[in-house]
Amino acid sequence: xxxxxxxxxxxxxxxxxxxxxxxxxxDTLNWAVARYxxxxxxxxVITSGDRSLEFCRDDVAQPFRECDRMADHLIxxxxxxxxxxxxxxxxxxVSNLYYVKRELIRAGRPREIVLPLAHWRIxxxxxxxxxxxxxEFTTTYVAVNxxxxxxxxxxxxWEMQRRFLEPMPRGQDTWxxxxxxxxxxxxFWAERD
Length: 193
Hints:
42% of the residues lie in helices and 15% in strands. With 193 residues, the chain is an alpha/beta fold. The chain has a single domain (5-191), classed as HUPs (Rossmann fold, 3-Layer(aba) Sandwich), CATH 3.40.50.620. The chain has a five-stranded parallel sheet with strand order 3-2-1-4-5. Helix 4 (93-106) packs across helix 5. The N and C termini lie far apart (46 Å). The model has no long low-confidence stretch (mean pLDDT 92). It comes from Allobranchiibius huperziae.
């Protein structure tokens, strides 16, 4: 099916006691359900995420992949399973977008990409997406209001991911293929408390 639009939904580390996502993930899921319901031509919806780097580092046995839990929420709220693609290899925003790009290519390169995100995530995700996707897709960011993390955490993630991606030519994501989870960026996160 030739699709004009794809909605990308990024996961986030759930609470290891309740296994609930942070509020902003549910806000983006609910936004996607409303967009899907209102669309005459149903968009492709991509849920992205395996589990967080922190859970991998600490050997936390998460009982689900983030992409599956998000897809379940969408299906429970009326999104057709056939319109959902689950990307379940990624563990951070850089790998989210790398693997999502592959899914978009497999899906026939929808022309318009929509990313609903917590307002505070948009600058970092936009910076990473620009590097990974290059100019291949038209992207619209939709801000959902949600609780904010400590400003220093988001700034540090932005800065470290910017430095990591700096040598990569824009849109040349094959540069990333051998760098996931064993490069200096991932060692930095693994050694952080």
